[in-house]
Design brief:
With 259 residues, the chain is α/β, with parallel strands linked by helices. It is 45% helix and 17% strand. It is built from eleven helices and eight strands. The strands form two sheets. Strands 2-1-3-4 form a four-stranded parallel β-sheet, with helices on both faces. It has a four-stranded parallel β-sheet with strand order 6-5-7-8, sandwiched between helices. Helix 2 runs parallel beside helix 4 and helix 5 crosses helix 10. The longest helix has 17 residues. The chain is globular. The chain starts with 8 loop residues before the first strand and ends with a helix.
């Protein structure tokens, strides 16, 4: 009789109903033994609703993933998790904690903030596929969180079909073209774009850390589950522990080097 494979962690993701890339990215990059469970909500594009209306549905989705015994549950939509600022993001996380007290909860926004802290990024180039207003919401959120947005652009695309049509090669070209020497790192924002594929080649070209939404969330979820594995293909971030989880000697070394 064949033994069932050992499950070392369960990650639950709440994603927009139109998203078609998060699942293949997680299947590609999640280490063996890590199961990723997905719940979808209609919350972007024509289905966009204010946070107050979305929150009850998000809590219900959190409960569903808690039923699957997920160790960490993430509200995984970059634009929606940043749209209402830090106060709105705290409201989301508080609601999720109340629904799943046995799980660690996060949003794409909080995972990205943990990632920039882990990499000591303060000055960011932000590139997104979004319309200008959505892109500005993300600039506002990241600025409120203490980061400086020193460059980048929005592509002004209307929705998921257009996002998916942008090839990895085009994200690689855009990242290299928009990078600035005074930036500490580059963030390719959106869970529904072909960006994790270009993290390592883009880091090699610009010699700076590259963040993407799906990469940051997988990294955060693995670390939150106690998994310290390096994930091949996902760049410098996946060599780092969560902020505050470094051993004392490592923290001292980071202090000495300024990183």
């Amino acid at each position: 009789m064949l033994a069932a494979p050992e499950v070392t962690a369960r990650i639950g993701l709440i994603i927009p109903s139109s998203n078609r890339l998060t699942e293949p990215h997680m299947r590609r990059y999640a280490p063996p033994g890590v199961e990723v469970h997905i719940t979808r909500l209609r919350m972007t594009g024509a289905n966009h609703v204010p946070l107050a209306q979305l929150l009850p549905r998000m809590i219900e989705a959190t409960l569903a993933l808690a039923d699957a015994r997920c160790d960490v549950i993430v509200f995984h939509c970059t634009a929606s998790s940043m749209e209402a600022g830090l106060d709105g993001e705290r409201l989301v996380l508080d609601g999720m904690r109340g629904a799943a007290p046995g799980a660690r909860v996060a949003s794409t926004a909080s995972a990205v903030l943990s990632a920039v802290a882990a990499l000591d990024i303060r000055r960011v180039v932000l590139i997104s596929p979004y319309l200008a207003a959505t892109h500005q919401h993300e600039i506002d959120f990241l600025t409120e969180a203490g980061l400086s947005i020193v460059g980048g652009r929005s592509l002004g695309l209307a929705g998921g079909d257009q996002y998916i049509a942008v090839s990895p090669a085009e994200w690689l070209r855009l990242g290299q073209a928009e990078m600035r020497p005074d930036a500490d790192g580059l963030f390719l924002s959106c869970t529904n774009i072909h960006s994790p594929e270009v993290v390592e080649p883009l880091e090699a070209l610009i010699d700076k850390p590259v963040l993407t939404s799906n990469q940051a969330v997988l990294w955060y979820a693995l670390r939150a589950c106690g998994q310290q594995l390096s994930v091949p293909g996902l760049g410098r971030l996946c060599q780092r522990p969560l902020p505050g989880s470094c051993p004392p000697a490592a923290r001292a070394q980071q202090s000495l080097t300024g990183r």
